[in-house]
Amino acid sequence: MTDGPAGPLPPLLLVGCGQMGGAMLAGWLADGLAPSVILDRHRDDIPAPHKVARQASDLPDDFAPALIVLATKPQKAAEILPAIARFARHAPVLSVMAGKTVGGLTASLESVGTEAAVVIRAMPNTPSAIGQGMTVCYAPPAATEAQRALCTRLLSAVGDVAWVAEEAQMDAVTAVSGSGPAYVFLLAELMEQAGIAQGLPAGLARRIARRTVSGAGALLAQSESDAADLRRRVTSPGGTTQAALDILMAPTAWPATMEAAIAAAARRARELAS
Length: 274
Ligand SMILES: NC(=O)C1=CN([C@@H]2O[C@H](COP(=O)(O)OP(=O)(O)OC[C@H]3O[C@@H](n4cnc5c(N)ncnc54)[C@H](O)[C@@H]3O)[C@@H](O)[C@H]2O)C=CC1
Ligand SMILES: O=C(O)[C@@H]1CCC=N1
Known about the structure:
Elements: E1 12-15, H1 19-31, E2 37-39, E3 51-53, E4 67-70, H2 77-88, E5 93-95, H3 102-111, E6 119-123, E7 133-138, H4 145-156, E8 159-163, H5 169-178, H6 180-197, H7 202-222, H8 227-234, H9 240-248, H10 254-272
Helix pairs in contact: 2-3, 5-10, 6-7
Bound molecules: 1,4-dihydronicotinamide adenine dinucleotide and (2S)-3,4-dihydro-2H-pyrrole-2-carboxylic acid.
Subcellular location: Cytoplasm
Function: Catalyzes the reduction of 1-pyrroline-5-carboxylate (PCA) to L-proline.
Keywords: Amino-acid biosynthesis, Cytoplasm, NADP, Oxidoreductase, Proline biosynthesis
């Protein structure tokens, strides 16, 4: 998906190319990415002209990324930041790490003498791999419009992009859209298992559960209606869907469970800050 201006995406230093970094990279490669460097010990399948560095000391000194994307686990931040700090003097850092705050990341860079570092946060999700991601960003007042535009350009290449004005909202965003694909995949898993429990052959249960989740998602994406309206259109009074929803929508069932689950994820994001 390309909402930004035409032409290649700018050269990046992508630090960490696992599930999330790899998903974004897949989308960026599909959209045309200027020669970039990927820092990851475990990737050797990056196509030319892009380069892989196994450790920070292997990074080419003359490489001038337009943006540094930090996509290692939050627990690795303290190890990684000093190692890439020399590039952060000239390029903003875009962190996708859950929980880690702009203040904390900036302080880590400043502690190794990188005074001019600008850190912007983004919370993407794995559908970015197919251009269907949802990314929410936060930039501190020190970030320039050009730096924000650069982030929007890059992230809109892998899906939809929104910005929040309050950094604290990033924890709720993480709980809803960052972690959210896992909730949807769990739904597909559970529907498949329940279909098997009702006597369906495993292959058919898998096929109809997956297609139902993906088809409903595609309908939601294309519709202007609220999700609740689309739900009502499936639900005949006194019919089969109603029988299921009476269980799922009981106040102590999905409404309470989803609220508690998202609160737990947001709480965990806050804990990861330190
Ligand atoms: N997985 C997801 O759906 C999402 C993850 N995130 C964030 O993305 C970040 C990465 O998460 P995942 O991709 O799930 O983890 P992951 O473990 O799949 O990827 C991390 C990558 O970092 C690499 N790495 C570890 N230490 C390194 C080092 N010292 N130098 C260079 N590379 C190193 C690993 O080899 C690995 O490929 C996390 O901070 C997470 O909060 C954000 C949104 C969604
Ligand atoms: O589970 C996690 O911590 C990361 C952040 C959002 C999705 N995965």
